């Protein structure tokens, strides 16, 4: 049996001091309010350990007393993994573990603590003359521990991979307080199971990530960026294959959006006029890195060829950093402008890249059958096969009536995703939002293996209980 709330609070204070514990409900609010405000459950307290040793002591005590702990970093997660589920948990925010332990730009790695804000990690790398290529719209608040635990992606996954592929080593505190020191900068290490990968993407269910060694890359000399008109997702796919052939791993982004998305930008966002000379049903934002000594104009040349081959109908290449920033700002504003158009139903799904056009066609038709008049707004990382498959409410419809059909719309999309061999969570994870869905859709043997790993590392079930599994 777990301790009473008062006993938990005094136990925490004895371990972490007054400065390391927040028990006042008002002061806890910022730690309990997640970005989409879908989950509003109180916590017993918020704990803020000052260092790894304090976190170890906290875990030892919580494990002995069966006190459930919720790891939290920047609190930007979108599936409710970092906030309470039942109200008897302690949220453990690791923002005070924010030191930079080592940077070796030439060798291409740095070791930082889990509480370092992603933007700060970018700055640390840049100051040393290197790049940490994980860019998310939430990077001003998201922290390394949360980014790794949710295996975040972003806009350059195409070239550099998601958090998992950028992680060389992990240090973690286990549920019983032991420290797993998996920090290393090895590209090759075949000494048994890849334990760091257990923690990356585990959403705090197996232990606390306290530090990580991540990959750094040379800073490109320039980026060539273009917004391209394409007639359909099929044409976008052909363009993707062609650009990849011409530019290889220098192709860092290939983002898709439809005309409705651009209309939303024009109505509610940063765009004052149409981004290209002619109106198009679909647009691609493509970017190519140019390294030191590289020849300029690779993207322009490839797009001219694509124009000649009839793959694209128009294109505008950024001529200045301001042009580029505007193109990206428009892309990154998509969620925000959509929210100004009324209620929306959202899906973060992936399929093999070749199936993206089919996903969009069949997913759109399926949801239109469920909600006539719905306005599809699919956008995102087409180059990774990952589409944020969103839908805006029909014009004039009551938002509540629209959202009442969310479950049916979800079922329609997930049926298509499953049939195409895709995933119902490409970037954001499972948390509490998609837990029941995982139970329903994931291979039962895979679920058994996940439960066995959880039971082995957290036999008392104190790590983020009820999340993911
Ligand atoms: C505006 C916006 C844009 C976003 N864009 C993207 C995007 O492009 N790509 C993408 O993949 N995601 C995106 N996200 C969601 C993304 O998951 C988070 O932004 C980020 O990766 C989470 O980091 P965080 O520090 O906020 O983690 P939190 O929200 O604090 O936690 C996320 C999960 O990790 C666990 N966790 C946190 N810290 C630790 C730790 N130290 N040890 C173990 N477990 C831990 C938590 O329990 C929770 O399950 C976006 C979110 C927002 C609000």
SSE map:
Layout: H1 5-16, E1 21-22, H2 25-32, E2 45-47, H3 52-65, E3 69-72, E4 90-93, E5 100-104, E6 109-113, H4 118-127, E7 130-131, H5 144-149, H6 157-160, H7 163-166, E8 167-174, E9 179-182, H8 196-199, E10 207-215, E11 217-218, E12 222-230, H9 233-247, E13 251-258, H10 259-268, E14 282-290, H11 298-308, E15 314-317, H12 321-332, H13 334-339, E16 344-345, E17 348-350, H14 356-370, E18 375-380, E19 386-392, H15 399-403, H16 406-419, H17 435-441, H18 444-457
Parallel strand pairs: 2-4, 3-4
Antiparallel strand pairs: 1-2, 5-6, 6-10, 7-11, 8-9, 8-10, 12-14, 12-15, 13-14, 13-18, 16-19, 17-19, 18-19
Helix pairs in contact: 1-3, 9-11, 14-16
Which tags fit this structure?
Uridine Diphospho-n-acetylenolpyruvylglucosamine Reductase, domain 3, 469 residues, 18 helices, alpha+beta, binds flavin-adenine dinucleotide, 5-stranded antiparallel sheet, Alpha-Beta Plaits
Give an overview of the whole structure:
With 469 residues, the chain is an alpha+beta fold. Among the domains are: 100-218, 2-Layer Sandwich (Uridine Diphospho-n-acetylenolpyruvylglucosamine Reductase, domain 3), CATH 3.30.465.10; 222-319, Alpha-Beta Plaits; 342-424, Alpha-Beta Plaits (2-Layer Sandwich). The protein is built from 18 helices and 19 strands. The strands form 4 sheets. Strands 12, 13, 14, 15, 16, 17, 18 and 19 form an 8-stranded antiparallel beta sheet that branches. A 5-stranded antiparallel beta sheet has the order 5-6-10-8-9. A hairpin with a 5-residue loop joins strand 18 (375-380) and strand 19. Helix 1 (5-16) packs antiparallel against helix 3 and helix 9 crosses helix 11 (298-308). The longest helix has 15 residues, at 233-247. The protein is globular, with a radius of gyration of 23 Å. The model has no long low-confidence stretch (mean pLDDT 96). The structure holds flavin-adenine dinucleotide. The site of flavin-adenine dinucleotide (FAD) has 35 residues, from strand 3, helix 5 and strand 10.
